[in-house]
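Fill-in record for PGG domain-containing protein.
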Amino acid sequence: GQFNEEVQNGRRKMWENLWSKYLQYQGNWIEETRGTLMLVATVIATMTFQSTISPPGGVWQEDTHTGGRNCTTYGICKAGTAVLAYAWPQKFMRFMAYNTTSFLYSLGVLLLLISKFPLKNKVMMWLLPIAMNVAVTSMAFTFVFANCMIMPYHIFHQVFSIPYPFVVAWGILILVIGSIHTLRLVFWVKENVQVKRIFRRVSDSVV
């Protein structure tokens, strides 16, 4: 019995040390990295905005009925609209969806940083990294679908077979980072609930 208790206490101390050293938020790191976060979010917002007004493949320079195989399908290809939106409509929609997601999340991070919200709040310390992860990951998917649309078909499979291991590694990395931040928030909520319960018990005993 005593041996089992010692083992359990040892495991508990190990997890507590792991939590305090690696998983717990260390100081006011968001305030310390505010400038870096703002710079990265600004760069992402600029890149995704530019991808919208200058899409891959360019835009039609004038109205045409015969400029491409899908111009006859849609009746006309309007000047100023994306060329690849007619050639690859489904892929272009995905490209725009991920591009817009990255743009909006990066703007959200910028808005939070310039609005003087209390960044010491644990919810904010969880929200900002998650938002940046979504923005960066969406930008990566934007890059992938842009390549899908402009890549010549005869080398498409050869080119996209190369980065497959890196895509898997990226997915695992994002999953680990998201899990760590979620665990931090869960443990913080749990600690707050326990503190409130103890405070209520003390208050009730005093009364």
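KEY FINDING: The chain has one domain: 2-53+94-152+159-206.
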